[in-house]
Design brief:
Blueprint lengths: L7 E5 L5 H12 L10 E5 L6 E3 L15 E3 L9 E4 L3 H4 L16
């Protein structure tokens, strides 16, 4: 692959063991292309795993609609979207935007 023009390898750090990553890094560091240049290593670091669950099947959000987002212990309204494992209040502020998508219907 290096001889055909690959100049970087992207390694997903979310999967596999530390030993597997070290082995990949060591293998890549041994590679040189025809010009003697070594490919770069790009690491894809894991970000927060934000998941939305327990959403009513008939819930439809419209552009510009206000919605309350709460952790499980705060949820007591059918219209609340329940998130798990992430504190939105720590990162969001009034007047800021939050992009939400349904990955199954996004095209």
């Amino acid at each position: 692959m290096v001889d055909t023009g690959v100049n970087a390898f992207r390694i997903n750090m979310s999967h596999g063991s530390l030993q597997e990553k070290k082995s990949l890094f060591d293998q890549i560091k041994k590679l040189n292309n025809r010009d003697g240049h070594r490919p770069s290593i790009l690491t894809d670091l894991a970000g927060p795993k934000i998941r939305i669950k327990d959403v009513k099947d008939d819930m439809v959000l419209k552009t510009g609609q206000n919605m309350v987002i709460a952790n499980e212990q705060e949820a007591n309204d059918e219209k609340i979207i329940i998130s798990s494992g992430f504190s939105f209040g720590k990162y969001l502020r009034a007047g800021k935007f939050l992009l939400m998508m349904d990955v199954f219907s996004w095209k």
